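Aggregate trends can hide what the representation actually does to any particular protein. The sequence in question and its structure tokens are set out directly beneath this paragraph.
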Amino acid sequence: NGLCQKDGIYHVFFQYTPENPLGGNKYWGHFQGTDLVKWEYTGIALSPDKPFDADGVYSGSALVDGKDILLFYTGNVEEQGDFDYVLHGRQANTVLVKTPDGIQMSGKEVVMTNLDYPDNCSCHVRDPKVWKEADTFFMVQGARTVDDRGQVLLFSSKDGVHWNYLRSLCSEKCFGYMWECPDYFVLDGASILSLDRKSVV
């Protein structure tokens, strides 16, 4: 969920289920170290303890910006009722948390909800990957459309809080019904977008 380095310390944030490894509620844990070999486990970094992430702190990313590490994740909520949880009944909230050291956490701030995603998206939008170019933040998220096609959503922001939808990225032919865990990085001058796809409904 987040590998970064700040002030000589490497941080690894990871999603796990301490209550039930076979399918319990999802948290984020945290390791830190100085050499990428020896690691110290510091405990649970993020817990599903708010109404907007009550059913799981889902995947996301970490970004060092100034004095803080910015953590973005999907707060999962499954509403009570007779829902299919694909088109109705699920909240996919994009949440921001700031930390100076990977241990002390600020309050959680919801920066996007289902209402901020394109109209053709189902309730399945998740896994924000955020990076910064000059003075602008960018974010990609994985999504499932209402007609079961995977796509990646691209957003931009000047402050990391207020986000603007730019466009959707998809394949000409259907390449799975859900794209998730997108990653974007530049390697040897080439822009790389990687993702996981789900192909069996």
